[in-house]
Structure prediction request, 142 residues.
Amino acid sequence: MSINELQDNVIEEFADFDDWMDKYALLIDLGNSLPPLEEKYKTESNLIEGCQSRVWLQADYVDGKILFKGESDAVIVKGIVSLLISILSGHTPQEILDADLYFIEKIGLKEHLSPTRSNGLVAMVKQMRMYALAFRTKEQQG
Prediction:
């Protein structure tokens, strides 16, 4: 599935709920379904700067695609990590760099997150794009 198709699925899933408490519950469920990150990846270099809670993001380049793994010590943030991974993982660096992550606004995440969580979300997306840029540069250098 393309990044946009995956985003549309997320938007649909969140559209089932009107109440933000239900949407938070869905985020928490998504976070709880995220496989735990292996301890060896919980390193300083995988820690995302700018997040209030601790968020680790691991990226591996496999067969031309980036596979992300992540975890957070905060349940709602873990749900956000899970969403980003479900949408961006398994795509090429170029697809990730070209992606317009419109789902964030469409599901109301931007307006319902505290400023610190919002900054953390921006930092996570930025880090995922940095990985994509690094892997694309590596690709181009052969």
